[in-house]
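Supplementary Note 2. Why include the ligand at all?

Several targets in our set were suspected to adopt different conformations when bound, so apo predictions alone were not considered sufficient. For every target with a known small-molecule partner we therefore ran a joint prediction. The input for 2-phosphoglycolic acid is given below.
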Amino acid sequence: MKKLMAANWKMYKTGSEAVATINEMAAILNGSAPEGREVVVFAPFTALEAASSAIKAINGASTGAENLYPAIEGAFTGEISPVMIKACGASWVLTGHSERRHILGESDEFVGQKTAFALQNGLRVMLCIGETLEERESGLLRNVLERQLKLGLKDVPAETPADALAIAYEPVWAIGTGKTATNDDIVETHAICRELMREIMGDKADETALLYGGSVKPANAGAILGLDNVDGVLVGGASLKADSFTQIINA
Ligand code: PGA
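The joint prediction is reproduced in token form.
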């Protein structure tokens, strides 16, 4: 399985800023993702079309949206459908990011509806899961991951190819805080995630990418990518600059 190197640009970058960053990445990477690596850039809706055109300059790279609404079209003011995302030239979407769960109040059930709908409509989905510090300290780590995975994957069509889905484990306390989980934490938690994925999706679990996210940077990316059950990284802050994100891609 190729390692997935994903950027989450959150609410940063206009269209022209996105294009400038991608052009810089393309120059540093000589027009191609390194051997054995796949690159995905999750960009804001308003930059998605421009980013999707620009990313064609990098072989093995694609774009994704950071959110979707589970309907083809309709009276859903301010929302975006998978059809619109695909029309921008993007092939991926994020679901369940902790900022959407905790700031926008998305439930596990709603995350599950979005995940299934996006897959049914031909997008690849990166479902994000992860516990808060309070949950971890109260011994609820496994419970939280189990609930988020079970409900998040509840209506995923059985015929979904393994490479259409990826899971990103991101401990909430490590996102944007500069606090990375220790390598031991990551190995232990990824083993739990993989075991839960096997319970839910059987053999397909071993072909489904399981990424780590939370304060990944050039200095720690190589070590994290070498850990058991780590099939890629989802990078926020350190993905905003071409120079640091390409160092991570090459780590
Ligand atoms: P961070 O964000 O790398 O800035 O911690 C990761 C994410 O939220 O996906």
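The chain has ten helices and eight strands. Residues 8, 170, 175-176, 213-216, 234-238 surround 2-phosphoglycolic acid (CB under 6 Å). Comparable summaries for the other entries are listed in the accompanying table.
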